[in-house]
Amino acid sequence: MKLSMFDDFRLGVWARDDSIVDVTRVLPETARPSDRMSALIADWARVESEIRDASRSTGTPRSQVTFRAPQPRPSKILAAPVNHGPHREEMIAAGAFTDVPGTIEKYVAFLKAPSSIVGPDGSIEHPDPTRRIDYEAELGIVIGAPARQVSRENALSHVFGYLALIDVTMRGDEDRSYRKSFDTFTPLGPAIVTADEIPDPSVLELELRVNGRLRQKGRVADLIYDVAQLIEVYSRAMTLETGDIIASGTPDGVGPLTPGDEVSLEVSQVPPLTIPVTARDPLHQPSAPATQ
Q1: Reported confidence tier of residue 283, pLDDT bands at 50, 70, 90
Q2: Which residues form the Fumarylacetoacetase-like C-terminal domain (predicted)?
Q3: Are residues 32 and 94 in the same domain?
C-alpha cells in the first residue's frame, strides 16, 4: 500500500486508480497531526485490513489534494555517509578524502534534525547565496517495530516501508550534521510504500533530475552497507523507534542547486518526489561564519 499525509495532515491511502482515500478515522483522536504516521505504524496490526479495504474504493484525484511530508516528525533521522560504491569512487577521484576509506566504514552515521523535513507542498530553501548546496538522491527507510540490537537476518522485519528522500547538503567545513540540518534540507514523500510491496529493496533504482536533466542514476544494490546492515549497525548503538527514518546513501552525480531549480527524484516502485528550490528570506539567513 501507499500511504500519504495530505491537506491538513489527513491520512490517505492510494487507491488502485491512484486517487487518495481519506482514512484518518482509523487514527486515535489524541494523535497530533505531526504524530499521525507514527501512531498509524504503531497500530498497524489493528488497522491494516480496514485501510486495505479502503484502498479498493475511489477517492479524491491526486491533483485535488496537497501532499505533506508523510512522516513529518520522526524521533530521529539517521543517514549513511558515502555509502554508495560509485559515489565513493567519485569522491576519491575528486580528492575528497585524505584517507581511504573515508566512508561509512569509518564514519558509520550522522544525524539530521527532524525539523529539516519538508514535504512536496514546500520548497528547498537556499539559506545563503554565498554558499553551495547540493542534492543527494536517497532511499528513505521507515522503521516499523522498534529495533534494538537486531541481527542483519532479522533487520528487514523492522521496516515499515520506503519513500523518496533528498538529502540536501551545504558544503563547507562545519560539522556534517549542522550542514545537513537546515530547515527544508530533508525533502521526502509524497508517500510511504509499505514493505510488503518491496520485499527486496536491493532491486530498487534511483534517478534524480534537475530541471528535467538527469543528474543521478543508481541502484540500491550498490550500497556498501545494504538496508539490513544499516539497521543492524545503527540498532547496536541506539533503539530505532517506530517511525524513525534512515537515509540510505546517495549515488554518484551529486551537484549544486540554485534558486529557481526544480528537483525530481524517482525511486522505482515508489511515487516520485518533485520540489522547487527557492531563496530564503534574507532576514533569516544564517549568520555563522563559514569556510568555503
Answers
A1: low
A2: 77-277
A3: no
